[in-house]
Specification:
Blueprint (H helix, E strand, L loop, with lengths): L9 H16 L3 H12 L3 H16 L1 H12 L8 H15 L6 H14 L4 H21 L6 H8 L3 H11 L1 H10 L6 E5 L6 H10 L4 E3 L10 E4 L9 H4 L3 E3 L2 H10 L6 E5 L5 H10 L7 E6 L2 H13 L6 E5 L12 E6 L15 H4 L4 H18 L1 E11 L8 H10 L3 E8 L2 H4 L5 E7 L3
Parallel strand pairs: 5-6, 5-8, 6-7, 8-9
Antiparallel strand pairs: 1-3, 1-4, 2-3, 9-11, 10-11
Helix pairs in contact: 1-2, 1-3, 1-5, 2-3, 3-5, 4-5, 4-7, 5-6, 5-7, 6-7, 8-9, 8-10, 9-10, 13-14, 17-18
Bound molecules: S-adenosylmethionine.
């Protein structure tokens, strides 16, 4: 972690520490932010600013580095990491974050570079002063009419822009690319096993947190809330008491589309960290009904964390966690009323909230993921009783992992029909980019 500098605001110090951990140690940005913000004791407002800085600098890295290289006239790879990070943070504030005075963006970045020692702060000072004047013109020269230009302007690898161009067409792909650098909506699910949505909304409102009921066209989200003010859910007492879960509206839509009845038996394949398993538990256990969710997770550590989450959310008596491979066939005599298949995926629908993911994901991984997804879908379908519903969900916008997996499954399996298919996107729906395909087993 960089040294603490009295002259630099706490939010900027946290952002610099997060950036260092992500860029130099390979940390996940969301986890690094949670740790650094807790250590610094940031309030909700500073937390939101630190997040905008750290996530923005990671997300917009490609565009920021393009501007840095034009102004510094040298490759970013030749800069010392603290100088590089101070430049990225400074230019982000100057060019992309509204509400930051240019002199503050420059001075605070210079102080961060000074604290790292050496003469690098002089370069930071010179580049940022020029950046304030010339940066907007450099950005205006970028042209997003081709996938490559859009990838540079919106700071994603070329392959992601090309994938979305093919999948969605140029206009929608551009809108989506512009959107993935905006902060994600904050949405909450009230855990109805422990609390009443109206009472939680009223309590938050009394504390000055601006919340409104969540909605998604055609899908009821009665337990959902959208937060319109700075709010750090993980440090809220309602989170600790199990009344609240941080969950996007898209993720809430999965359990709501599957819509198991109170008392139903549900199989959840690929279940950790358990957002959907605990939502399903709230639906099958509504009003004290004796429902059950069998939640299968391959990784022991994640399965253990899922068990703890279920306890915190008072779903321990409803969810039975199994550690195992969801792609393996299950006991042929054990049939479920509903099945959720939420397999590992490229995650490209969650780039807003997982800033480093675009730099970790790879086009090469998609073929292997789609094969695994197909196998897990087939295993889930085999466990469904006739008349039962199956929801195939991913948090990606990637036809080979979505439509093509479902099409191939239906082509190879008689006795299943497609009820609905929906691709949510951040640009169209203001929530994560989930793919949700609802199938029904029409015959044994
Ligand atoms: C998309 S996440 C699931 C999210 C979860 N359903 C939720 O709502 O919180 C995929 C999960 O599948 C697990 N996983 C990966 N391969 C698996 C397999 N073959 N069998 C079971 N779980 C697997 C991963 O460890 C990860 O926890």
């Amino acid at each position: 972690m960089p040294p603490v500098v009295a002259a630099v605001s706490p939010a900027r110090q946290v952002a610099a520490a997060v950036l260092r951990r992500v860029e130099s140690d390979g940390a996940y940005a969301d986890r690094a932010l949670a740790g650094e913000a807790r250590r610094a004791g940031l309030d909700a407002r500073d937390h939101a600013f630190a997040m905008a800085l750290a996530f923005g600098a990671v997300q917009r890295r490609r565009t920021l580095d393009h501007v840095i290289e034009r102004l510094a006239r040298r490759p970013v790879g030749q800069l010392d990491p603290p100088v590089r990070d101070a430049l990225r943070l400074g230019l982000l504030q100057l060019l992309f974050l509204g509400g930051v005075a240019p002199h503050a963006a420059v001075d605070q970045s210079v102080e961060l570079a000074k604290a790292a020692g050496g003469p690098g702060y002089k370069l930071v000072n010179a580049v940022l002063r020029r950046g304030a004047r010339e940066g907007p013109r450099i950005l205006a020269q970028l042209d997003d009419r081709s996938p490559h230009g859009a990838a540079l302007l919106h700071s994603v690898p070329d392959w992601i822009a090309a994938l979305w161009w093919d999948a969605l067409g140029a206009e929608e792909a551009r809108a989506l690319l512009a959107r993935v650098n905006e902060p994600a909506e904050t949405a909450l699910r009230v855990n109805t096993l422990a609390a009443d949505p109206a009472a939680v909304a009223a309590e938050l409102g009394e504390r000055g947190v601006a919340v409104r009921p969540a909605a998604l066209e055609g899908i009821p989200l009665d337990e959902g809330l959208v937060v319109d003010s700075a709010f750090d859910v993980r440090s809220d007492p309602l989170f600790a008491s199990g009344a609240l879960v941080a969950q996007s509206r898209a993720a809430m839509a999965a359990a709501r589309l599957l819509a198991p009845a109170p008392g139903a038996r549900v199989l959840d394949l690929c279940a950790a960290p358990g957002g959907k398993a605990t939502h399903l538990a709230a639906l099958v256990g509504a009003a004290g009904a004796a429902g059950e969710v069998v939640a299968v997770e391959r990784h022991e550590g994640r399965a253990e964390a899922l068990r703890e989450t279920c306890e915190r959310l008072r779903a321990g008596g409803i969810v039975r966690v199994e550690t195992g491979d969801a792609a393996q066939p299950r006991d042929p005599g054990d049939h479920f009323d509903a099945v959720l298949v939420d397999p590992p995926c490229s995650g490209l629908g969650t780039l807003q909230g997982r800033p480093d993911l675009r730099w970790r994901a790879s086009a090469e991984a998609i073929g292997e993921l789609s094969r695994l997804q197909g196998r897990i879908l087939a295993a889930g379908a085999a466990a469904l009783r006739p008349g039962g519903a199956l929801l195939y969900a991913t948090c990606t916008i990637s036809p080979r992992e979505n439509e093509q997996v479902v099409d191939a499954f239906l082509a190879a399996h008689d006795g299943f029909e497609r009820v609905s298919t929906r691709q949510l996107t951040p640009s169209r729906d203001d929530t994560d980019g989930f793919f949700l395909a609802l199938l029904r087993r029409s015959a044994p």
